[in-house]
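Re: calcium ion structure - here you go.
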Amino acid sequence: MPPRNIIIDTDPGQDDAVAILLALASPDDLNVLGITAVAGNVPLHFTSKNARVICELSGKPDVPVFAGCDAPLQRKLVTAEHVHGKTGLDGVALPDPQMQLQDAHGVDFIIEALRHAPVGTITLCPLGPLTNIATAFQRAPDIIERVQEIVLMGGAYFEVGNITPAAEFNIYVDPEAADIVFNSGVEITVLSLDVTHKALVTHARVDAFGAIGNRVGEVVASWTHFFERFDIAKYGSAGAPLHDPTVIAYLLQPDLFTGRHINVEIETQSELTLGMTVADWWGVSGRQPNAQFIGTINDDGFFDLLTRRLALL
Ligand code: RIB
Ligand code: CA
């Protein structure tokens, strides 16, 4: 089976970084056509720099990295330095990237990649706010039917919100973009907080990253140790949820996950619940299902896969 072609749309962020490393560690399974940075956890000048830092850390400086949108479709950017630190990759000092950004805008790259590839041969993997994806769909509606599927990290139902009482960060930052994507008709799989909050980076798992014995393992252990302080203080949990790598793990080993095909709508009007993913988990709305909403993860299997693959870099 040839590797699946993917585009990773991302706002690194330590957890995005681990997701990108997992993808780049899996060339027999995933062909990363490009990485498009979007403003989210930190502003675009950091996310577009961090994406290149991560590629170089993985030893793959030839992966094309593009800067995308620097602000949501209609709203002021909300960032998350309180979680990820000022640079978005706090926790370990890494050298500035030598590789250059691609000249093309990230949105143009997504459009042209989908127009030039055979229909249904590119999977989009958004790990941040959906601004780039929605902008591409608005600017070039012809590409929508060409997308193989979207597998994204975002939203929540049982876990409710992490940036407001009602909303998960990626959806909250650009709810209008999420509304466009969730109502595009593209097949979507949602790795929400409902599942990522079951993938906690315990101290034993941080230690296992550190014990891999390569530079990537050392750096991932430092990132996940830095990243955990916010969630442990907030939730009193045994570690931080490792959100974005679940997207890549789903592509690599879908049997680690279970979910339901349900209707998911995005709140874009109410200031109180702005960005809420109204997930009809119990099928009471009568609305057409539009997303595979993942609810469970085999967390030991997930961390075993992740640790084994990071050891290959
Ligand atoms: O709510 C978690 C999501 O928001 C993750 O993608 C994290 O990187 C941030 O973007
Ligand atoms: Ca992210």
